[in-house]
């Protein structure tokens, strides 16, 4: 639009010498009276409107998007990796919650968690974006912003079938919840394990460091349920 | 300087809004200290006035004082029309008379009425009109609601140009600086024939002052400070004409606003600050035959969204509703953090007219708008300074109007309108776009005929519209789709006004209006933060068609002024969000899904205004508005309809000498009922009814040549804790607490 104005002023300046110089100095608005008396005819008016129209109808090619916007912060997949503490390291069991097509579309695929009675596990959680190629490990971002994040474990399985204790901490010494100790309490199930990831919460709130998010506030980034059975 | 040797008599008549002559009105030329009082026939003579041009003021008790320029010698007797101040509750003046060729139900806020609410947002400013409420998203975002409808069902005309922002969003406030306006007018009616699509419930017109036509520097300064939000607002306007070339005029205007966190009675509303910088300017020339002007305006705003309203899941929302106090409460600050909006809106307009002869006039305008909207979210991994929504909307509108006055009491208006629009998502947000890119074109052709004779005025209109929409979007498989939509529509309107006698008149308006589905209703897909719902667009929506019937009775006989509107509106294929029975499981838990559907809806209601002059200095006023809205297919009330409002006010107004020539004290109360008619699909029931008390006092006086005014208002004087059903942040926090507002005004 400004270009149009400048263009018109320039065009007319080319033909009518120094009238417009005064416009730029703003010291005397009589320039317009001169302009209107002498020059402001219908022709100029038409020129102006055609230019205005041109400026509006600039090329519309840019309305066609080149590529889809890449949703960067999405999680598609959460992996719970249980490592039996009594055996060697290479027998991890993974349970996966996966929803590749985002909030709409198909329902998520959810594994059922099956644990063995009498065991203790190390539980590690991974957050992945599998729509990226290669797969993006969002866990690293959470680790980097550890003071702003915390994982909570709720649901009927907690303290009935299993107990979960934090086994990591952020730079302030508050729990983060990416690494945890799980103790199997008794056989039974299925019961629900609810995994919650909060962002920008108040980690000093009452109960937060004991795994209770009720007073912690913040924004929920992940809130998913698994069925847990202890055999 | 002009020769001042010649002296003339200046004579004229003083009327009220209608045809009543006013006796006892004061007519005064401050510069000469000359004046007169109108006699019992409403006439006056000021004798021996030297030739020249002067500012003249006309004042009459209970009426807005009028200021205008007169040239002496003047060939015809002057006629002054004063506007009654009977709308003391919100200081608005109602123009019950037909405006040139339009018979719509119009109500206007201007002059002193506007002065007293300076500093308010555009939507808040027009809530002083009965039947107009506002839809809020916290203290900084408000949209006008006319007879229960808003957003794409209320058309806003900014300086005659359709305001095209991203108005589909309930949290997208109109990008207009109210200080550009000299006049705010609301047309309560389906005004599609004249104004095109979207004028389903009504139209809001924001009109800047006319350019001066002769040399006389005019200026205006407004300063407003509010205790709540520790807000400061300043606005300056300068205008002048030229005597060397009469008809040439210019005007520049600028305003700025800065507010920090607002507060509820018991806590700070953290991150609700606003910053605005606005500018507008116009230069133009006109003579009797032709004229034209160029107008440019820039609106920029940065505003914070209540921090506690940013939630991630249904559980978070339910927690927020449970909580007595919002989760994030910090000390007062001017800082605006995420989530926030960053908006710029530019409008450039060229307009012109040509008079073929006294009875035939051609006028046109062409305008370009560029709307840029950036919304910033709280994000992970250092992405917070990248916008999550980054939209750029460019709109060209053009209009060609021919007005023809026939001899036999008929006159007609014929017009062609054009719209060309392009919406783009600026790449790089790292978020899937909420609405797709699109191109849209529209053509409208209309004709309105008006007939006036004796006690009757009649008006008929018809219009044809064509709208094309071409969408560019990636589907879920990331394939580019380019669906094309064509919408056509035919609208008609008819109005009649009958004057029974000098004090009673009746107007009826019958009109159809339409609205093609907007792109968000067709294609939005995904989670709506803040309301914790998943929205699903519907590609098969068709044009929404409305019919509105308004009956207006107005009675004006001292000491009473009474106006009432009854309206009935049917909307066929009303687009609304239908809750689906199954919530959808996402990674943030389960969310209810709302899919855009169409139904038949009915809205009916009434607005009533009463003013009684209890004593020459004391006026009582009362306003009531209600609307009942139903989804006829499901037999349920429509969601988010304004609750019944009942407002009362008492005002003492005294005119004094020429120094402090007017002062007033007023007390207003507002009672807003609980909305009990709800479809029951909300997270929480509507808030309880509430009662607010507002107090205002002010005076006008003269310092040298400067007309100055000062006023102090206390809104929510009792510091009442309340929540309003039409504030979308009622889930999270209380509404504003006591607010003391100081307004200073000067003009010359």
Write the layout of secondary structure elements.
The complex is a heterodimer of chains A (231) and B (748).
Chain A: H1 2-16, H2 21-25, H3 30-38, H4 42-56, E1 77-84, E2 93-98, E3 109-110, E4 113-115, E5 120-129, E6 136-137, H5 139-144, E7 149-154, E8 162-166, E9 179-184, E10 188-199, E11 219-230
Parallel strand pairs in A: 4-11
Antiparallel strand pairs in A: 1-2, 1-5, 2-3, 5-6, 5-9, 7-10, 8-9, 10-11
Helix pairs in contact in A: 1-4
Chain B: E1 7-15, E2 26-29, E3 34-37, E4 43-50, E5 52-59, E6 66-72, E7 78-81, E8 106-110, H1 111-115, H2 122-126, E9 132-136, E10 142-146, E11 154-158, E12 161-162, E13 183-188, H3 192-195, E14 202-207, E15 218-226, E16 231-241, E17 248-259, E18 274-286, E19 290-304, H4 314-322, E20 340-357, E21 360-376, E22 389-405, E23 410-425, E24 437-453, E25 456-474, E26 480-481, E27 484-499, E28 504-515, H5 519-523, E29 525-528, E30 533-536, E31 544-557, E32 560-579, E33 584-586, E34 589-591, E35 593-615, E36 618-631, E37 636-637, E38 645-655, E39 660-672, E40 690-703, E41 706-715, E42 739-747
Parallel strand pairs in B: 1-7, 11-14, 30-35
Antiparallel strand pairs in B: 1-4, 2-3, 2-5, 5-6, 8-13, 9-10, 11-12, 13-14, 15-16, 15-42, 16-17, 17-18, 18-19, 19-20, 20-21, 21-22, 22-23, 23-24, 24-25, 25-26, 25-27, 27-28, 28-31, 29-30, 31-32, 32-35, 33-34, 35-36, 36-37, 36-38, 38-39, 39-40, 40-41, 41-42
